Amino acid sequence: MTGERTVTDGIASELRLPAQASELAAAREYAHEAAAAFGLDDDRCYEFAFAVNEAVTNAIRHGRPDEHGDIHLSVRADADRLTFAVRDCGTFAASTFDRVTSSERGRGFALMARLMDAVQLCAAPGSTTVRLSKLACESQLSAGLGV
After folding, report:
1. Band of the pLDDT at 94, cuts 50, 70, 90?
2. CATH for 4-141, among 3.40.50.1980, 3.30.565.10, 3.30.450.20, 3.30.2310.20?
């Protein structure tokens, strides 16, 4: 996997990736590894990685990389949820988000919302972050998995 990774206390990590479509596989791998380590089953790992792929694709296509040409990915595991954040240095344009969807584009947020338990968009001048969360299932919580 390309990019620069930082791990802290085994429950949070960050990865910087070049803002290029060729890096999508690395983003999916990073997301899938985090989901599996958190204890999500195969189907929920796939959903998690698929939603992350969509968020990273949006950051690459519509966002702006940092001064090094990177976008920033981070993952955090709490007792009851796994949260993945995708941050770029662009300023979110609501008009792009609100426009009518075409047959091939514009359904990314709806798709992410369908696959995840929570999707949060945080937009500020010069920074857009999408946070995707998947809750631990009951069996994970009762078994003490998740962190």
Report:
1. low
2. 3.30.565.10
